[in-house]
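[AMINO ACID CHAIN]
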Amino acid sequence: MALALRLARRGLGRVWPNPAVGCVIVDKNGHVAGRGCTQDGGRPHAETQALGKAGVRARGATAYVSLEPCSHQGKTGPCAQTLVEAGVARVVSAVEDPNPRVAGQGHAMLIAAGIDVRVGVRATEAEVLNEGFFSRIRRGRPSVTLKLATTLDAKIALPSGESRWITGERARAHGHLQRAQHDAVMVGIGTALADDPELTCRLPGMGAKNLVRIVVDSRARLSLTSKLAATARNQPVWLLMSQAGDKNAAASLAAKGIKVLTVPPADKGIDLAAALKSLGDEGLTRVLVEGGESLASALVESELVDRLLWYRAPTVMGEGRPAVGALPVGGLGEMPRYRREWLTSLGEDTLESYRRAP
């Protein structure tokens, strides 16, 4: 199952709206006969890949799958039925699929065919790996990771706006890996106007062409000559605009190939909860937020940040722009709270991972 989970991780950021799944076929003699993971775009599924490599050795074998095999007919046939037809004797599944179209029915199909089924092996790891997919199914929105790259005193830029580069090369490379492992990267319009970013993954061999670049832009102020607008036909760019925004400007941006999603307005631009629901409706499961103190504070205040990645350089800036803007905190007990998962070093920099405390 550990191998199946490692295979599944390869699909993160590449298989939405499907979950990232890994499958390992172990033959009757205890040897790995086939392995596979969900392919780009969500199909073929992991089980199909692994069974194809196992061939006749799948008969009487054990299949280790990081998520319950699907039981419904979509663009491909049910994986549970494919396992039955291959003649596997046993299926070990990490966790049940929360999708109502599956939700135990895949396991039931296997059991009805006389296959021995065990569920719950390394279940916590499997849930964390596919937390974005589970979030979209259970909450209707993708999981949100807020990335911060700061000094020791949590500054992201000088008062002038200069910010390149606060962290070192290894930390920046790790940040690009995070882009590759998410379905979308999001910034606010302030960051888009100030930095004119491309928001691409620039790691060798990991172009992540299906990475969606999202701008929270309530009034549709993104420049028609920006790098995002200029490349929208080659790699997707989505704009989250208020229903009260400039429709003529939005039409001009749409003509450049940008998908404009309109959501209800709010005091600080747009209703971010509704915006994330809209992204979930479009199939996104994992969103990496990189943009600016205003967007960061709005998401934190709305309790929409599921995970926080903090890249911290060994420097002190003093006066500068904070990573998170002002929050309506009236006392220490009202502060948003996160629990640290782990810490690691990236050259001279430090990376810490936090999750929102329950």
Summary: The mean pLDDT is 94.
